[in-house]
């Protein structure tokens, strides 16, 4: 993966005149189509005042996990830890919400607005051990840059 190639297109999506929803959807579609081991890409955001995450835009198979309580699963843990969570093998996680037998690994990166954890980008992969530092840097970049239009 060449991060620079991906981030230049991401920059264009962010700078476009599209709505917030369209931009988030385009980012999901783009990442899923460009990175072979990104099989599901989605954004979750804090649901108002509630201690839960709500699914926003995503690319990939439909999921029943549209609401995730804080603390539950990989996503819910990131909502409270405020830290990246890289899971190279989901079978080793006790606190994990399965989105189907095909998913082997997952990466979740929090989104901060004025220092507050407001949501996250979540990626599921059908490949074991696919993620490197590069994925974290790419996704951190996206989570930082999108705050200009959130
Ligand atoms: N696996 C996630 C649930 C959300 S799906 O991956 C879309 C988790 O454990 O939080």
TrEMBL record:
Could you tell me which InterPro entries the record lists for this protein? Answer: GAF, GAF-like_dom_sf
Which Pfam families would you find in this protein's record? GAF_2
UniProt domain GAF: residue ranges: 19-148
Name-wise, this protein is: GAF domain-containing protein
Organism equals: Tenacibaculum skagerrakense
């Amino acid at each position: 993966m060449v991060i620079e190639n991906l981030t230049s297109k991401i920059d264009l999506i962010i700078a476009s005149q599209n709505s917030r929803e369209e931009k988030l959807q385009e980012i999901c579609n783009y990442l899923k189509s460009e990175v072979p081991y990104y099989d599901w890409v989605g954004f979750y955001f804090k649901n108002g005042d509630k201690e839960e995450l709500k699914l926003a835009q995503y690319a990939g198979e439909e999921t029943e996990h549209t609401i995730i309580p804080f603390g539950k699963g990989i996503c819910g843990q990131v909502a409270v830890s405020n830290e990246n969570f890289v899971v190279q093998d989901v079978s080793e996680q006790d606190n994990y919400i399965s989105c189907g037998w095909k998913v082997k690994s997952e990466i979740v990166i929090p989104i901060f607005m004025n220092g507050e954890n407001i949501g996250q980008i979540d990626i599921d992969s059908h490949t074991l051990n696919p993620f490197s530092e590069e994925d974290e840097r790419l996704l951190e970049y996206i989570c930082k840059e999108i705050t200009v239009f959130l």
